[in-house]
Amino acid sequence: MKKIEQFFRAYFYFNTQEQKGIRGLLVLLFLAIGIRVALAWFEPNPLLEFKLSEVEVAADAIFHEEQNYSKSTNNKWVNYPSYKKRDSSLFSVSKFSHQYQAKKVSTSPIDINSADSTAWVALPGVGPTLASRIIQFRKKLGAFHNLNQLTEVYGFKEDLLFDLKERLLLNEVSGYQFNLNQVSYEELSKHPYFKYKLSKAIVNYRKQHGNFSKLSDLRDIKLINDSIFELINPYLKLE
Predict the structure, then answer these.
(1) 84 close to 126: Cβ distance less than 8 angstroms
(2) How far from chain centre, in Å, is Cα 104?
(3) Which of 58, 97, 215, 220 is 20 to 30 Å from 126 by CA-CA measure?
(4) Which of 120, 119, 143 is nearest to 131 (CA)?
(5) How far is the C-alpha of 212 from the C-alpha of 205, rounded, in Å?
(6) pLDDT tens track for 52-71
(7) Quick one: how far is CA 96 from the chain centroid?
């Protein structure tokens, strides 16, 4: 026993600082696992439609088996009380499967500024969760002005946009632009592209220098570089 104790002390001994480090790493590890499990829980299951198809096939098989057996017994159900209940529940799922698959194979183009959740889910690669995120982001923006903005939605990756480009339309929408010389800090700060610091800088600049004469005057604000100006420009107007 002493030799075993000496062995562990020699090769598995950690001082106080090392023990704290190990505990910290374990905490980070469990946090990472917890976050991954949470994300997996909220993401839609892409295998759902395939599972539904399998249930549909099973329902059809049971239905035909019962029909054949009914004919062989002069249309009387013999020893099949549980099949009737099971057939009803399976066919309700089968009906849903047909509807779900019909939506998924839709190839009609949609307007990304007016499409509802049903239209988005009808596109391949877009589930209910992603469709909800797209619509919520669109509401915060006011409207999309570029297809590439879809990749700013969590879960909408560039390869998905590449696959769907032929099915996406972008029609102009009015009423989503802020009047630069009248918009308040509170209104502007709610927009995803302006938020707090930028909104405050724009409003303060207007107070100090008077109304903007042209949108390009925004470039005089230190926080606004070329990339930021290109990002916010479609959401502003002068009247």
Answers:
(1) no
(2) 17
(3) 58
(4) 120
(5) 9
(6) 444 454 545 555 555 554 44
(7) 23
Query: Which residue matches tokens 């019909």?
Result: 102
Lookup: tokens for 126: 């877009």
Determine the Cα angle at 92 with ends 86 and 95, to 5°. 135
Q: Does domain 178-237 have CATH number 1.10.150.280?
A: yes
The amino acid present at 33, given as its one-letter code, is: I
The enclosing H or E element of 169 equals strand 168-169
Q: Residue 216 is encoded by which pair of tokens?
A: 């390009």
CATH tag, 110-169: 1.10.150.320
Token pair 């949609």 is found at 110
Mean pLDDT of all residues in the chain? 77
Cα torsion angle, 170, 172, 176, 178, sign: positive
What is the tens place of the pLDDT at every residue in 11-28?
A: 566 667 777 777 877 888
pLDDT at 13 (0 to 100) = 61
User: Is it true that 110-169 and 178-237 share their CATH fold?
Assistant: yes
Do residues 225 and 201 make contact, with C-beta atoms less than 8 angstroms apart?
A: no
Strand partners, 236: 178
Instruction: List Cβ neighbours of 37 (8 Å cut-off, separation of 6 or more).
Output: none
Residue for token pair 């892409």: 46
Q: CA–CA separation, 117 vs 110, rounded Å? A: 11
